[in-house]
Task: inverse folding
């Protein structure tokens, strides 16, 4: 970090990351203290960090104050930070959506157009397919993912775009790639359209958003990675999601909706554009990054995120 900027100055002309926005984020990152840790930091407000995209998704924090994210229709993965601005990590991401770093620091991508889950070596940039078929049939359009403490990968496989008319699977399910990357297991079915997914740091609970059923489901995670005890956590849908250190779940619908661990809606963050996904980052782990259609936003929260992903080989 930082990664070299692979875009020319001319190609950046339609993006906006102005000095006032950078200064505003710096002020947010320096702001300390909150009387209600689980509350939205209303006095800092939401800041647009960068704009000019078609559909931003899949945010994952770097090891500083920046964030990586997908621009799905433009088939790119970008990086933004308040010092260096915008750069492009992957020029053709095959319609990547969800992003996550594994334990070795490699970037794992759900690739909608490629109908697969892939791994990008951070040092070399080499791509490797981790999952492309199940029972000899292609996936629909892998969407979002979460990596557990053992380095196993949970991912959702709804059908969007072309895959909605060319489905080879018998439905839309949740899968698990084992830590040794040898097996792909279907761990949840009987869902409408699974979308966002995230698990708790203790590895005991997995949340899955079902946009068709407008439900957030909770599952128990068993020792072998299988899921059990499906139950309703919240009666709304969501695109992406994240957790904070207090166990609050952040959902994306018309707003960013925050639920406590008991499933009670405790706060909402209004965003100028419809949010698609969220993740925590920043050096203190308190910056909530929000991907929302054409832009990426940031807001400092009163609590840290549940995860602080700092892959060693990013530096």
Result:
């Amino acid at each position: 970090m930082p990664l070299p900027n692979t875009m020319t100055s001319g190609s950046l002309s339609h993006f906006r990351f102005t000095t006032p926005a950078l200064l505003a984020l710096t002020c947010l990152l320096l702001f300390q203290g909150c009387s209600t840790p689980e509350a939205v930091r209303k006095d800092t407000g939401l800041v647009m960090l960068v704009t000019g995209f078609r559909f931003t998704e899949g945010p994952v924090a770097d090891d500083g104050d920046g964030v990586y994210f997908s621009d799905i229709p433009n088939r790119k993965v970008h990086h933004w930070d308040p010092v260096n601005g915008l750069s492009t990590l992957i020029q053709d991401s095959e319609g990547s959506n969800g992003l996550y770093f594994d334990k070795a620091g490699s970037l794992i991508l759900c690739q909608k157009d490629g109908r697969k889950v892939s791994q990008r070596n951070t040092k070399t940039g080499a791509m490797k397919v981790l999952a492309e078929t199940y029972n000899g049939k292609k996936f629909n359009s892998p969407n979002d993912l979460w990596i557990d403490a053992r380095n196993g990968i949970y991912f959702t496989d709804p059908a969007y775009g072309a895959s909605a008319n060319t489905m080879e699977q018998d439905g839309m399910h949740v899968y698990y790639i084992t830590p040794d990357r040898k097996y792909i297991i279907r761990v949840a079915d009987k869902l409408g359209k699974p979308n966002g997914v995230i698990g708790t740091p203790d590895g005991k609970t997995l949340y899955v958003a079902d946009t068709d059923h407008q439900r957030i489901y909770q599952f128990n995670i068993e020792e072998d990675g299988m899921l059990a005890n499906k139950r309703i956590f919240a009666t709304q849908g969501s695109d992406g999601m994240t957790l904070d250190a207090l166990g609050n779940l952040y959902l994306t619908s018309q707003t960013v909706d925050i639920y406590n661990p008991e499933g009670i809606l405790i706060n909402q963050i209004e965003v100028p554009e419809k949010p698609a996904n969220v993740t925590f980052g920043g050096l203190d782990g308190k910056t909530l990054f929000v991907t929302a259609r054409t832009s990426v936003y940031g807001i400092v929260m009163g609590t840290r995120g549940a995860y602080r992903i700092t892959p060693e080989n990013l530096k």
Notes: Confidence is low (pLDDT under 50) at residues 1-15, 17-43, 309-315. The domain at 37-314 is CATH 2.120.10.30 (Neuraminidase). The two ends are 5 Å apart (CA to CA). Residues 50 and 116 are 28 Å apart (CA to CA).
